[in-house]
Amino acid sequence: MYEILILLPVCERHGDLCILVIHIDKQVFKLLFNRMAISPRSDATFSNQKSTPSESPRTKKFPLTEEEIFYMNCRAAYLTVFKSSLENIISKDQLYLALQHAGRNPSQKTINKYWTPQTAKLNFDDFCIILRKEKPTSKAELLKSFKQLDVNDDGCILHTDLYKFLTKRGEKMTREEVNAIINLTDVNADGKFDYIKFCKLYMTTNEQCLKTTLEKLEVDSKMRRHQFGNHIEGSPERDPSPVPKPSPKIIRKTDQETFSNKGDTRSSLLSATRKFKTSVSFTITMGANGNRNSKLTEPNLIKPCPVNLWHCPRGSISTSKNSSIFEFPKWHKWCLLPVYQDWQYMQSKGCFFLEEDGEIISHQYRMQIAQRSMVYLTIKPLNLSQVEGKPSPWLSVDTALYILKENESQANLQLVCFTELRNREVFGWTGELGPGIYWLIPSTTGCRLRKKINPVTDEAQLVYRDQTGKLFLTKEFKSTLSDIFEVIDLDGNGLLSLEEYNFFELRTSGEKCDEDAWAVCRDNFDTKRNELTRQGFMDLNLMEANDREGDPCDLWVTLHSMGYNKALELTEACPFVIDIYAEKCKPKIKAVHMEACSGQLEKAICKSVLSKGDAKVMDGYENIIVHTYSCDTWITSVIENKSDEKVIIHINNELSKNCVNNRGLNIFAVEVGPKSTMVCQHVMPLNERQEWIYYCIYSLIS
């Protein structure tokens, strides 16, 4: 599907533009003709100009990065439709219009992908995520699309052919709309439509539209002060000035005004806080650790202590302020016993998958404990076969496991604990669990498992033919399939059951394989004990390639769904493994869902942070509380709104050092509903081997 947005001058006198939206599905063209008015300009408007913001003292000193330019363009497009980036997109029409102003060409299919029946609203952050995925059309793509109708290969399309396509196929245009296109004198002559001139005009016009919007944003200082959901001038990584000394007090308006008038380079940023009713700040300095933590002892070295760390009496076990190191009372001694000799063990694998919209989904599990027992649980990234010279980014992804007790029904789950102890990449928990059903919900902050900005251009070869024409899988693709087999083999027995295979099918095709289809699979591919072998899985993919006569299109759909890029690098998924040891009974674990990391997980994170984190009340607004939990690996903040009204909280992380958060934005705003709590952000160090400073200001917007 080619998707093209074309902006053409209809009336230079009034500066009107027409928007031609061309959707090409195979050789069927669908054009929609709309009108949009922008500010008047001269003929020089359509000269080829680079779309960059005008220079300010800051840009002269520190040129804008690609990331900053991207967010500036996002902001400019958003504010063409809305008064503030705090306003939400509340309809498909608004989303469509905002995307058009950003130079995109959203088809109905594209709109439906981001605006589902369950969607009530999208915010500015969602808009930025969409723009990362929906790239503007290049001139080469545009020319390629039109060339499909160029029967004479002369750069033109006959009006008769163009008219036939526009009025007879797909979403038909009216005669008046087609005539409006054909009557554009700059691109029509002698009964032909000159699409080469058309494409050139499209490129220059599109650039000028963006430039005009950016200039409008630059001069409108009032508009810029409302930019809460994005980057603002003054990046902390460029600013040589030191971080202010931590202050335990709540920042009041008078403090903010005094601070912002001291001539600091961030004064433009801090002056915006005069719009806030009140603010509260957190400062946490974290030391470098370099993954050398040893707070969690491996199970084959020691026997876990007979203490439930979650339910221990106040004061019996203490922790350092910013650490997960537990200090046990003097009466407790660790027993150096090899637990694997007498403790019973179960394992299950799973995976975090990064969706197109940036959401993370993963397997979720039910665990059964038959009798009261000491239990030891860990989660860590799964170590797959690593090719020399090829990165393994998933190994640095943080993982956690939340354990919830099922009481009477699945809807009534009670948080028991989470894996806050750490030893290198392993996160674990040890304590006593009573008999019953428990839900294990994996979690990752999203700070390191996130969409990559730079796309891979070189595509790996998946299949090839020998001299006889027979089709084979390449060595590199077979290695990747072997890794995928390792991930979807949840119980690790070297075979795929129907249940395990169906998790794979749901992920890659959205459908399940029924018993009859599985029987056909068993008859045609290598199986053992009614389960698919690794070789059988390879042959299944080879058959798929043969069915497409060597076209790897469907194979790439599978690979992308499993988190692989065009270079066969696993960049948008993180496989993990869960290990469970129980002293007095054999634990049972089963993957039951593959769902978004929200819902029950969000509730569990909020409850854990409220229980273990530090709390600060907004000055003068006792019903609005910011909770912050910190461990050596990450910091999580939760906003609690006890009032009967929704509130909007502005978050500013610009003074943090060596930090990255899951939202990808230093400055943003969140809306917290009445009588509710929400996870505001997760923060991690960019470089664990260096000190990192979390400095965040939370402000209530008036």
Automatic annotation (TrEMBL):
<comment type="function">
    <text>Component of the EvC complex that positively regulates ciliary Hedgehog (Hh) signaling. Required for the localization of the EVC2:EVC subcomplex at the base of primary cilia.</text>
</comment>
<dbReference type="InterPro" id="IPR002048">
    <property type="entry name" value="EF_hand_dom"/>
</dbReference>
<keyword id="KW-0479">Metal-binding</keyword>
<keyword id="KW-0597">Phosphoprotein</keyword>
<feature type="region of interest" description="Disordered">
    <location>
        <begin position="229"/>
        <end position="249"/>
    </location>
</feature>
<comment type="subunit">
    <text>Component of the EvC complex composed of EFCAB7, IQCE, EVC2 and EVC; built from two subcomplexes, EVC2:EVC and EFCAB7:IQCE. Interacts (via EF-hand 1 and 2) with IQCE (via N-terminus); this interaction anchors the EVC-EVC2 complex in a signaling microdomain at the base of cilia and stimulates the Hedgehog (Hh) pathway. Interacts with EVC2 (via N-terminal end). Interacts with EVC.</text>
</comment>
<dbReference type="GO" id="GO:1903569">
    <property type="term" value="P:positive regulation of protein localization to ciliary membrane"/>
</dbReference>
<keyword id="KW-0966">Cell projection</keyword>
<dbReference type="InterPro" id="IPR018247">
    <property type="entry name" value="EF_Hand_1_Ca_BS"/>
</dbReference>
<keyword id="KW-0106">Calcium</keyword>
<dbReference type="GO" id="GO:0005509">
    <property type="term" value="F:calcium ion binding"/>
</dbReference>
<keyword id="KW-0472">Membrane</keyword>
<dbReference type="Pfam" id="PF13499">
    <property type="entry name" value="EF-hand_7"/>
</dbReference>
<keyword id="KW-0677">Repeat</keyword>
<dbReference type="GO" id="GO:0098797">
    <property type="term" value="C:plasma membrane protein complex"/>
</dbReference>
<dbReference type="InterPro" id="IPR011992">
    <property type="entry name" value="EF-hand-dom_pair"/>
</dbReference>
<dbReference type="InterPro" id="IPR052266">
    <property type="entry name" value="Miro-EF-hand_domain"/>
</dbReference>
<protein>
    <recommendedName>
        <fullName>EF-hand calcium-binding domain-containing protein 7</fullName>
    </recommendedName>
</protein>
<keyword id="KW-1003">Cell membrane</keyword>
<feature type="domain" description="EF-hand">
    <location>
        <begin position="137"/>
        <end position="172"/>
    </location>
</feature>
<dbReference type="GO" id="GO:0060170">
    <property type="term" value="C:ciliary membrane"/>
</dbReference>
